[in-house]
Design a protein that fits this description.
The complex is a heterodimer.
Chain A (H helix, E strand, L loop, with lengths): L1 H7 L6 H4 L2 H23 L6 H26 L7 H15 L7 H25 L4 H19 L14 H8 L1 E2 L2 E2 H19 L1 H11 L1 H6 L4 H27 L9 H12 L11 H20 L4 H19 L7
Chain B lengths: L1 H40 L5 H26 L7 H15 L4 H27 L5 H19 L9 H7 L7 H15 L3 H11 L1 H6 L4 H27 L10 H11 L11 H20 L7 H37 L1
Helix pairs in contact in B: 1-12, 1-13, 2-7, 2-10, 2-11, 2-12, 3-4, 3-5, 3-10, 4-5, 4-10, 6-10, 8-10, 11-12
The chains are: A mainly alpha, B mainly alpha.
């Protein structure tokens, strides 16, 4: 514990040690958000109004929920492609199961979150115990969930498929507390929880250790398989949470709801300085990434820029940002 | 003497087990196709059914071959669908029914694909960025460009062009599949092909042996870009028009074909010949499910099951072959 002693002593405080690449990247990504908000404020002062900011925070929260899983999986050096249809299936499930009213809400939440958890567990077991490459396992799982969602709901033509979820969920998540929408409050809670998990818990240390060097972690006594399964399970769980939030926000489920969130969750994590190779990054960075994306899109929309330009700018911004601070030390 | 021969065979089976498995799976899928076709229509697949199946498979064969080459170098290319989007839109909006126009635009389209691959490759190697991040960003850019070139599905592809690239009345498609196979069989005997394997197996060792790793990885992306552009041409020819989102579904399918073809995602193992078989399996599987009267909503369910199942099967076969190789090695050591 010599390190922490040196860290707390007023003389021995070495800011160069505290100012790690990870903290620098997170600072950069928040700097990007501030810069974009200023640019947006100059171009369209309306963006800075309270109502517009709360809509932006809400939009960012949807990416943020999916981003929890993507960040954790990235920290292990994996990737989760199954978020697309786990999210969509989550939205369908919560709408169908809670269509009967508030009484059915607890059961509906349990079923929806359970579905996300189950898909995530399956992904984790496939990756950790059967050594299936993450990309293949999660793509396969995505296909399976897509097929089941479409098949069981008859392509979303079932009786209750188009119904809105229970009113309690709608008022709870869409209602505002001191001007802040309910889903944003949930997101703030999730940010605190995940940050605590990553920075202040043994499980968090184990995730980083496994991501940096699985073999060394195993030898040091980290149950790397268990960590992997837990991380993928969390990713599935949070994709389902995002589905619930989106279903509540748009008053029901639709097909293709999850499609934008694969690219956006990956982009948010990458912009936030999370390395896809594992071991480096933090969810706080991803939060900055979500805000960056949302503010960027808001500026482009406010300038009435057509969709195709938005898609081009989106890609270009990702490349510019990673060129600025996401470069690998060396690629052989 | 017999020990040596046994061990050599084991070595061969270890090397080629995934490829053999790809051929076996293609055989099983073809058999299933014939069976369900016959059960549904009470006659064997006609020449027309075979020819149209082959021409349907062509876009996937090309794009998956390109993806396979990139995966061999232990990378991946998420922009292949975007390249197909842009290239089929370009072909559908610009090509006229004269021979010079068709030739010129085919070449332009292939050059666009190659240039995109070059950008991907340089960003990955010189820019020192992760392939996933780079290609997901270029995918977004390409999709935007495609929507700019062709805002609504449409455009026009000359009928004579369709007759060459996507002819459902002659087995011409086999020639194109043959071109891919011959190209690969030649490539892997040249310096570049060997270097692709070397870089995929161990980039640092390859570098130490004097291979220019950056150039090889960039070349893989360029090849993938050109192949994806060719896939875009086949896609446009097959649908006699363009669609700025038409290539998107080929991204997942290309990974499925690569996996079914026995190319390892850990790099350096596999063959494009296997990937071609994998592309055949993925294409035929859709027809099999159709003739087996499976509700089309469940299509991706079965594809997902098949994908994961095939990976597991591939690993079981490889580990059996490895155990066998190790066993005979142990026996031969005892003998010496």
């Amino acid at each position: 514990m010599a390190d922490s002693a040196a860290g707390t002593s007023p003389v021995g405080w070495d800011w160069t040690k505290w100012w790690t690449t990870q903290r620098r990247n997170i600072a950069y990504s928040f700097g990007t958000v501030v810069l974009l908000v200023i640019i947006g404020g100059i171009l369209k002062p309306g963006i800075l109004s309270g109502s517009s900011l709360s809509v932006l925070a809400e939009l960012a929260s949807f990416v943020g929920f999916v981003g929890v899983g993507q960040t954790l999986v990235f920290l292990l050096g994996g990737i989760d492609f199954s978020v697309v249809w786990v999210l969509n299936a989550g939205a369908i499930l919560i709408a169908v199961e809670s269509a009967a009213g508030n009484g059915s809400l607890p059961g509906a939440l349990a079923i929806t979150l359970g579905m996300g958890l189950a898909v995530g567990l399956a992904n984790g077991i496939g990756v950790a115990y059967f050594s299936i490459p993450a990309i293949v396992m999660t793509l396969g799982a995505n296909g399976i969930v897509e097929g089941l969602s479409l098949g069981l709901s008859g392509g979303l033509t079932c009786n209750t498929c188009k119904d809105p979820p229970a009113p309690a969920l709608l008022t709870g998540l869409n209602g505002k507390l001191a001007g802040v929408p309910g889903d944003v409050l949930v997101w703030v809670g999730v940010i605190l929880l995940v940050s605590l998990l990553l920075s202040g818990s043994t499980f968090g240390r184990r995730i980083y250790a496994t991501g940096v060097n699985p073999a060394a972690s195993y030898l040091a006594g980290v149950g790397i398989r268990g960590v992997t399964v837990a991380v993928y399970a969390l990713s599935g769980l949070f994709a389902a949470v995002a589905g619930i939030m989106l279903a509540a926000n748009s008053g029901g489920a639709s097909l293709g709801l999850g499609n934008p969130y694969l690219l956006e969750s990956i982009a948010a994590a990458v912009i936030g300085g999370v390395s896809v190779l594992g071991g480096r990054g933090h969810y706080v960075g991803t939060v900055a990434g979500c805000l960056t994306l949302v503010v960027l899109v808001a500026i482009l929309n406010a300038e009435l820029i057509p969709d195709y330009v938005r898609s081009i700018v989106y890609g270009a911004v990702i490349i510019v940002i990673v060129l600025l601070y996401g470069r690998e030390k060396q690629v052989a | 003497m017999s020990v040596v021969r046994r061990s050599r065979w084991s070595y061969l089976s270890l090397q080629q087990a995934p490829l053999l498995l790809a051929f076996v799976m293609l055989g099983i899928t073809v058999a299933a196709y014939v069976l369900f076709f016959d059960l549904r229509l009470h006659h064997l697949p006609t020449a027309f059914a075979w020819d149209s199946t082959i021409s349907n498979a062509l876009p996937l064969v090309f794009v998956a071959a390109g993806q396979g080459i990139v995966v061999l170098t232990r990378s991946l290319d998420l922009s292949v669908g975007g390249i197909m989007d842009l290239t089929n839109s370009l072909a559908a909006t610009h090509m006229h029914s004269s021979v010079p126009s068709m030739l010129l635009w085919s070449l332009i389209v292939l050059a666009v694909g190659g240039a995109t691959g070059l950008v991907n490759g340089l960003l990955v190697t010189v820019g020192r960025l992760q392939p996933i991040v780079v290609t997901i960003a270029t995918m977004s850019i390409l999709q935007g460009l495609a929507a700019w070139v062709l805002p609504q599905p449409g455009g026009n592809i000359p009928a004579s062009y369709t007759n060459i690239l996507a002819n459902s009345n002659s087995p011409l498609g086999l020639v194109f599949i043959g071109v891919v196979a011959v190209f690969w069989l030649l490539l892997r005997r040249f310096r570049l092909g060997i270097a692709l394997y070397a870089v995929g197996n161990d980039a640092e060792a390859a570098n130490a042996l004097g291979i220019n790793v950056r150039r090889i990885r960039t070349s893989a992306f360029v090849l993938s870009g050109i192949m994806s552009a060719a896939a875009g041409l086949f896609l446009a020819a097959g649908s006699s028009g363009g669609d700025a989102t038409g290539g998107d579904s080929y991204l997942l399918a290309s990974f499925a074909a690569v996996v079914l073809g026995g190319v390892s995602f850990f790099g350096g193992r596999g063959s494009v010949i296997g990937v071609v078989c994998g592309a055949g399996v993925v294409t035929l599987l859709v027809s099999v499910l159709f003739y087996a009267n499976v509700n089309s909503f469940y299509e991706s369910f079965y594809q997902g099951i098949f994908l994961i199942g095939a990976v597991l099967l591939g690993m079981v076969v490889t580990s059996l072959a490895q155990r066998r190789a190790r066993g005979s090695l142990r026996r031969s050591r005892r003998r010496w």
